[in-house]
Every structure is written in C-alpha cells, then in structure tokens.
Amino acid sequence: MISILPVYGLPEIAAGDELGAMISAAIQVVDGDVVVVAQKAVSKAEGRVLRLAEIEPSDEARRRAGDSSDPRKLEAILRETKRVVRSRNALVIAETRHGFVCASAGVDQSNAPEAGMLVLLPLDADASARRIRDEIRERSGADVAVVVSDSFGRPFRRGTTDVAIGVAGLAPLLDLRGSADRAGYVLSSSQVALADELAGAADLARGKADGVPAVVIRGAAISGDGSAAELVIPAERDLFR
Q: Where in the chain are all domains bearing CATH 3.30.1330.100?
C-alpha cells in the first residue's frame, strides 16, 4: 500500500536553509521513502530569486511584453531561455538550459518570498535532490529517494501536473521493454515515467496554496538511481519540436 504524507510545520523557506535537515526534523522518514520537494522551496533555499525592480528589460523583452505584460518579467524569462520553442504575445514556451520545455522557462511569481519578486528554476535540480538526500541521511540515518517537482503544462492537455525536474536515489524511468503482458505480448517501447508519477501523486497531498512544500511517499516500489535528464526526450526523437 502506498501512503502519501504531507510534511506540515515547515516555515517559509529562505536562502541558505537546509531543506533536508528541516524535513527530517518535521517528519520521521524510513528507508525506501520518497521525499518530494516543491521546486519553489528548493529555489528559495538556493537563492534563485530576483527582484523585478533590479531587472532592466531589453528591447526584445519590451517588444514581447507589449502593453499587457511586465517587460522585466519577460527579460527574466529570456535570460533563463536556451531556445524559444513557441510564443504568442507575452506567452513564451521555452527550452531551458536543463533541456526542459515549459512555459516562461520556469520563471514564476506565485509563492515568491514577497511581492515584486520572481522565482527561477534551480541551476541543477538533480544536484539539489542529491544534497537534500544527503542531508536527510545525515540527520535521520534513513536511505530515501528525493524528487524535486514542478508544475508543467502538457501539449494537447488542459491543466498542469507536477513532474520531476530533479531526482536522486531512484531510477526515474521504469523500463518495461522486453517484458511480456498477460497475453504474452512482448513490450518493445514501454517506459513509465516513475519520477513524474511520484511528483504528481505528491501534489495531490500538497496543494498549491496550502504552504506544504514537501511530501513523503511511502510504499512505492523504487530502485536504482538516475537523473531527471533521463526524462527529457532527445531532440532527434521529438516529433513536436
């Protein structure tokens, strides 16, 4: 049986906070648990925030913003963008330096430390996950996996769902290729995005506006190790870009 346990009682996260230590103090974890941490919490702890007042927008940012958006936010988005995949007025679907394709290159104003601030994606969310995992092991002695999650939209589907942008202590893809289904059909291409499924499951218990930045999933069948980069489809196999 899988249990999803919100981590209550964590304070507002600030730059320099050790998330793993804070989570270990707030909830008892055991070997095999998966700790899912919201990207915003990780970014705040790592100081990945910007004040709009400190951003000077470029001509391109002003052009894209038009009269409907803040050109300073567009400038922050462009700075975090490796490639603009699609755009419509101020809406930018971007490929980040991590290889993720998402709205606004992951730049967001919601749940920022204070008004007039933006939160950026971690520079390396896999490294963030490894650091949190090490902190939890040091404080609790438990061997857990860690997923850093963020809300992404999806092509051809309405609404957002959380996905894994950082992983430590588990293989993010469950590879079923070569196994047979109940009818004996040998699967040739089936791979399950296990880390994304864990991120989405955690979001059911976390809530977007409830101030719960971490969730513990207990009872999930996990193994191996890997990185969130494995979840990014290679460009040569992508039919939509």
A: 1-48+123-234
Show the tokens assigned to 122: 């971690």
> What are the structure tokens assigned to 66, written together?
């038009």
Is 103 in a helix, a strand, or coil? strand
List Cβ neighbours of 233 (8 Å cut-off, separation of 6 or more): none
Evaluated on CA atoms 22, 10, 110, 155, the torsion sign reads: positive
Return the SS3 of 93.
strand
Task: Quote the CA–CA distance of 212 and 122 in Å, as a whole number.
Answer: 19
**Nearest-CA neighbor of 58 among 43, 38, 73?**
73
**What CATH code would you report for 1-48+123-234?**
3.30.1330.100
**How far are the Cα atoms of 157, 180, 201, 217, 218 from residue 33, in angstroms, in the given order?**
31, 29, 14, 6, 5
Neighbours of 218 (CB within 10 A): 15
Q: Which CATH class name applies to 49-121? A: alpha beta
Reading the chain (241 residues) residue by residue, the pLDDT tens digits are 899 999 999 999 999 999 999 999 999 999 999 999 999 999 999 999 999 999 999 999 999 988 889 999 999 999 999 999 999 888 999 999 999 999 999 999 988 888 999 999 999 999 999 999 999 999 999 999 999 999 999 888 999 999 999 999 999 987 655 555 565 554 455 678 899 999 999 999 886 656 799 999 999 988 899 999 999 988 787 777 6
The tokens of 17 are what?
């906070």
* Cβ(106)–Cβ(128) below 8 Å: no
pTM over 0.85: yes
